[in-house]
From TrEMBL:
GO molecular function: beta-glucosidase activity
GO biological process, one term: glucan catabolic process
InterPro entries: Cellulose_deg_GH3, Fn3-like, GH, Glyco_hydro_3_C, Glyco_hydro_3_C_sf, Glyco_hydro_3_N, Glyco_hydro_3_N_sf, Ig-like_fold
Species this protein is from: Faecalibacterium prausnitzii
Its EC number(s): 3.2.1.21
Name by which UniProt lists this protein: Thermostable beta-glucosidase B
Length: 1000
């Protein structure tokens, strides 16, 4: 019999469920719409369509250079290997241990041998799932690998127990650096493979790898007692020293070498952070590990390990040169004393935050001044050699393992016919380079250094001078044994300028003697200059490490102090102090005073503890969020909005930034379009229908295009930036840039968050892999070449992070204190070269503050320096702003920031809405749009657009899907409710009509 009992319970459940799902979908839609920009980028969802008008010509303004993706990818795989092969630096090669003999049978040791560092973590991370490994790279060169040992290191049990540890996320906390660990396998774990060693005993190759990443600096631990003061570091261990397990590994390999099991021991240093190299020198470390050869390879990128295979086999001769000074003890770097940020001791008294996304009460002092890297080690060395007063107790030979610029070869080179000629604007250096070896062909890196006089004027006015500064370089072609090449290097006279922040308050050229030299590295350069001054090992009682070559030195004398030649920039802007507020000794917010390190008194000014500063009311007031008070609201006329002038962005292609037609176009923008574009700049610039502006896609890319953080596809991962710089090959890195541009063009990107241009201030910065060097000249020159290549394909670069984002610990909002000479000569020099020589369109500012002012709201930095002095016409984007309040919208707009790297509109749009009737702020928004639109109109985003084309906004597919889902769920809820209502009525009817006896 059919069941006719009403299904009240069923329809009650279904009605409740569909109602809940409907509400959930509505709430989800609200949340999704708040993050619409991020979702559009991640899902590659279109928000507009082009309405084509008459197209009268070719609109492919930037053309692809490869016939297919396969051709591009194959070419780039070889290019990456070439960069590694030219950038890796041979440090040690006793008894011609390298290259390995043809058909050599070798054993690979260390977790890094099976788990290489290809790149760092965070915004620079890339997909290397298909990258070749060291075994494959060596086998491709005919070298046989110990499979038993390889399988052991690669086994699940070994990988789970003994794998490198790196902070898992972008954490920005003091504690993040404690998450780094070497975690190397102990010797006992290799016992099962020991019987295989003899058969593969031509060489034991040890890979020492260290990771680095965004949001966490590396721990330096307690090196004796000298760094016990480092906040948060006690007992964490020195990540850049050998671990106990690595020492044990080397000890056992030495024993096996002594008994004949292994013929040689080769070490590969797979790290962009400078590992302490005491273990390579028995006299320093007190133990001989029997290491025959060592090579620095940095982070190798996707296919760079193939270049390492070529180097080890001798298919390619090493020609890379170090771009950092490598030490026996990293604590010998004076910058270490102020590297990790610290809290003002009275921060709580002024309610200054010391943690979270809006840090106010943490600070860092660049107390070492201009003496970064070799500028310190070589300058103090020269003063010791010359017997300068107050040089102190300093021994270069027991401090520096390998100097900046060092790189050995399988062959030898000689320099001759050194000559320098002067013209109005440049010095032209020429010399002959000859391969004096008998077996190997190879390239040579020629480095040109100069020395500026350190005068009484300098000492009186607080100007610091280094004993040597790199001012030019060149890479020869491959030279066969006996072959020569004439090399020419041009040095602009502007390289001789120094910044006088206290008297002339501009760039000057001192009176006195200047020395130029061709050298193999920074130490060789100083020894050459000392030789020209008459110093020898003999007449300095051995203070000089080796005699220099005075035939490679030329002296130029400047008769008078010049305070005018370089006091005006190429844009015609007068150059004067812009950053006094970042100097505690001059700032109106002064939290105390700082003794800057000076060569006039090494012993009295070298830090022995962090610089101590104390917060005060003035500083606290300057650190408060949102400084603009609305008082300028009526100081200008409200700009025109929403005009119907009939222009499109495409109609501005080829027009100058100052073309008056820009005003006509900008008048068409609506207020909401400006808000959306400026405040929602997370990996994109928004479409604007009023002017036919397409949306653009921007993506991370210090090592190549990577969408690792946004979930999209990535392209070729090139080597870390320090390896690029270590090639000293401008043409090669320009080609890398071109290919990165090709990747962007092929994958639909118009903007790249990179290259990275901060400095290797110490070896412990988590992001050294995505910055070039400790030296601003090589960093800036290589960066300019890479930028030119990238932008040749219509991809605008955002140089990041301008400036002083040289550490990761508490980076959000940290107060960075330094003097003007240091800022200009070291930390802004890379941006200077990248913009003026490379033509970089745009920059990304940092999380940090200059003194008390967030760099994205520092008008002197953005408007005064970048736009005024350097003439940059592109846009300034913030680093990821998210919910950070200190990265303030209106303060940033006033200063010159244009677009916020934020997926979160609720904060920024609320603030923008508050200023809709503020003519001053609306004018700043209009100026920002000018920079944004000028950048985009000169990019590959305009490919396919003619001046007659217009744009119509559309709802992206995922929003349509959500609306459809809501509609379906709503209909189902109504239907279920209707069925429930029917069931309830039916039940009531059955009760009402039932016999009385049944109702009892």
């Amino acid at each position: 019999m059919k069941n006719t009992k009403p299904k009240v319970r069923l329809w009650s459940v279904l009605t409740g469920l569909t109602a809940i799902l409907t509400v959930a979908a509505i709430v989800g839609n609200i949340i999704a719409n708040q993050y619409a920009t991020t979702l559009n980028v991640a899902l590659n969802a279109s928000t507009y369509k082009i309405i084509h008008g008459e197209n009268t010509g070719d609109t492919e303004y930037f053309k692809k250079g490869f016939a297919s993706d396969e051709e591009r990818e194959a070419y780039e795989a070889e290019l990456c290997a070439t960069v590694e092969a030219e950038g890796a630096a041979l440090l040690k090669n006793e008894n011609n241990a390298l290259p390995l003999a043809s058909g050599a049978k070798v054993s690979l040791f260390g977790h890094g041998s099976v788990d290489l560092m290809y790149g760092g973590t965070g915004s620079g991370s890339v997909d290397t799932s298909k990258a070749p490994n060291l075994k494959q790279a060596l086998e491709a060169q005919g070298i046989t690998i110990n499979q038993t040992l390889w399988d052991l290191y690669s086994s699940d049990s070994m990988m789970s127990k003994y794998s490198r540890l790196t902070p898992a996320s972008i954490s920005d906390t003091l504690e993040a650096n404690t998450q780094y660990a070497v975690n190397e396998a102990p010797w006992s774990a290799l016992s099962s493979a020991e019987s295989s060693f003899a058969e593969y005993g031509d060489a034991a190759i040890v890979v020492l790898s260290r990771s680095g990443g965004e949001g966490a600096d590396l721990p330096s631990g307690e090196n004796g007692t000298s760094d016990s003061w480092i906040s948060g570091q006690e007992g964490d261990g020195n990540y850049l020293a050998l671990s106990a397990e690595e020492i044990e590994l080397l000890q056992n390999l030495k024993a096996l070498k002594d008994n004949g099991t292994f013929k040689k021991i080769v070490v590969l240093i797979n790290s962009s952070n400078a590992i302490e190299l005491d273990f390579l020198n028995p006299e320093i470390c007190g133990e001989d590990y029997g290491i025959d050869a060592a090579m620095w390879i940095g982070d190798v990128g996707q296919t760079g390990i193939n270049g390492v295979g070529q180097l080890l086999s001798g298919a390619v001769t090493p020609s890379g040169s170090l771009v950092d000074t490598y030490l026996y003890d990293n604590m010998a770097n004076p910058a270490m004393y102020n590297f990790y940020t610290q809290a003002y001791p009275n921060a709580a008294e002024y309610d200054l935050l010391t943690e979270g996304a809006d840090v106010q009460g943490m600070y860092s002092v660049y107390q070492e001044g201009i003496y970064l890297g070799y500028r310190y080690f070589e300058t103090r060395y020269e003063d010791v050699v010359m017997g300068t007063a107050k040089a102190g107790d300093y021994n270069w030979a027991t401090t520096v393992a390998y100097p900046f610029g060092y790189g050995d070869s399988y062959t030898t080179f000689a320099y001759s016919n050194f000559n320098v000629t002067e013209s109005d604007d440049v010095f032209t250096v020429t010399l002959k380079v000859t391969n004096t070896g008998k077996t190997f062909s190879g390239k040579e890196t020629v480095q040109i250094y100069f020395q500026s006089p350190y005068t009484a004027y300098d000492k009186a006015n607080g100007i610091e001078k280094a004993a040597a500064e790199l001012c030019g370089f060149a890479k020869t072609d491959v030279l066969a044994p006996g072959a020569s090449e004439d090399v020419t290097v041009t040095v602009p006279k502007s390289e001789l300028r120094t910044y006088d922040a206290n008297n002339a308050k501009t760039y000057i050229v001192d009176a006195g003697d200047y020395y130029f030299t061709a050298a193999t590295d920074s130490h060789n350069a100083v020894n050459n200059i000392l030789a020209a001054k008459g110093y020898t090992v003999e007449n300095t009682n051995g203070r000089m490490t080796e005699n220099g070559d005075e035939s490679l030195v030329w002296k130029w004398t400047n008769d008078t102090l010049d305070t005018t030649t370089f006091s005006t920039s190429a844009t015609g802007t007068a150059i004067t102090n812009l950053f006094d507020e970042s100097d505690p000794n001059k700032s109106s917010d002064a939290p105390g005073s700082v003794t800057w390190m000076s060569r006039s008194d090494w012993t009295g000014t070298i830090p022995t503890a962090p610089a101590q500063l104390t917060a005060n009311e003035t500083l606290a007031a300057s650190l408060a969020f949102t400084q603009y008070d609305g008082s300028e609201a009526n100081s200008v006329e409200m700009p025109t909005l929403g005009a119907k002038n009939g222009l499109t962005l495409a109609s501005m292609i080829g027009k100058s930034f100052d073309d008056p037609e820009w005003d006509t176009l900008l008048d068409q923008l609506t207020y909401s379009e400006m808000v959306n574009t400026i405040t929602l700049g997370f990996h994109n610039t928004a479409a604007a229908a009023s002017i036919g502006k397409t949306a653009t896609k921007d993506e991370n890319g210090p090592q190549g295009l990577t969408a690792a953080l946004t979930g999209g596809a990535s392209a070729m991962c090139y080597t870390s930036e320090d390896v690029m710089a270590a090639t000293f090959n401008v043409d090669l890195i320009n080609e890398v840039g071109r290919c990165i541009g090709e990747d962007c063009l092929a994958m639909g990107y118009s903007g790249l968050y990179g290259p990275g241009i901060n400095m290797h201030r110490t070896a412990y910065s988590g992001r050294n892999f995505e910055y070039y060097s400790e030296d601003p000249f090589v960093a800036g020159t290589i960066c300019a070449a890479e930028v030119q290549g990238i932008q040749s394909k219509g991809v605008y670069v955002y140089l990041k992070h301008v400036a002083l984002n040289d550490s990761e610990t508490s980076r959000r909002g940290v107060n960075t204190w330094l003097n003007e000479q240091t800022a200009r000569e070291i930390y802004l020099e890379v941006a200077d070269k990248a913009i003026t020589d490379g033509g970089a369109w745009s920059v990304m500012t940092g999380f940090n503050r200059w003194g008390a002012t967030w760099c994205g709201a520092n008008a002197n930095l953005l408007t005064g320096f970048l736009r005024g002095e350097l003439g940059m016409r592109g846009m300034c984007i913030t680093d990821f702003s998210g919910s950070s309040q200190y990265m303030d919208l209106v303060d940033g707009l006033i200063a010159g920031s244009d677009i916020w790297d934020s997926p979160m509109p609720k904060i920024h749009t609320t603030k923008a809405a508050n200023y809709e009737n503020d003519a001053y702020i609306v004018t700043q928004m209009r100026n920002a749009m000018h920079h944004i639109l000028y950048t985009v109109v000169n990019s590959n985003a305009m490919n396919g657009w003619a001046s007659t084309d217009t744009l119509k906004t559309i709802t992206p597919w995922w929003q349509t899907a959500i609306y459809a889902l809501i509609a379906v769920l709503a209909v189902l809820t109504i239907l279920c409710a209707w069925q429930l209502s029917k069931a309830l009525k039916a039940k009531k009817s059955m009760v009402d009509t039932a016999p009385a006896a049944d109702q009892k």
